[in-house]
Design a protein that fits this description.
The chain is an alpha+beta fold. The chain contains two helices and six strands. It has one domain: Ribbon (CD59), CATH 2.10.60. Strands 2-1-4-3-6-5 form a six-stranded antiparallel beta sheet, with no helix packed on it. Helix 1 packs across helix 2. The longest helix is centred in the C-terminal third of the chain and has 15 residues. The termini are close together.
Length: about 130
């Protein structure tokens, strides 16, 4: 039983490669739904991670939102947001890969259950209670 918990713990500690699903699409008008399509992202290089992104910019009378997959663009940003310029637009890009469809809205949501599970497992593993 001890080995099962240790194996389970190591599974969550070491990163592994998996495909992440992201919303893709563009919204130009306020009120228009930007969640137009779903894409399964794959990194172009073996060592890179896949990310979903959400770019938001204010144009003269519109708010532009662009959703999609980006490995190279998000490799420096990772799971954060940055102010960037893309062509004539200056806006905010947020990159994430913590779960599928993480580019749908607020990126500050945290899955408290996974956090508590990993912390309790770490505690039990550290003090050999398992």
């Amino acid at each position: 039983m001890k080995y099962i918990f240790k194996l389970f713990f190591l599974f969550f500690i070491f990163p592994y490669s998996y495909a992440i699903k992201c919303y893709t699409g563009t919204r130009y008008h306020i009120g228009q739904d930007e969640l137009q399509d779903v894409e399964e992202c794959s990194a172009p290089l073996f060592t890179m991670e896949e990310y979903c992104y959400r770019f938001e910019a204010d144009a003269t009378v519109e708010r532009i939102v662009k959703l999609g997959c980006a490995s190279i663009l998000c490799s420096a940003i990772r799971n954060h947001c940055e102010q960037v310029s893309m062509g004539p637009l200056t806006g905010r890009i947020c990159c994430c890969n913590h779960n599928n469809f993480c580019n749908s809205g607020n990126l500050k949501k945290t899955n408290i259950f996974i956090f508590l599970l990993s912390m309790s497992t770490l505690f039990f593993y550290t003090f050999n209670l398992i």
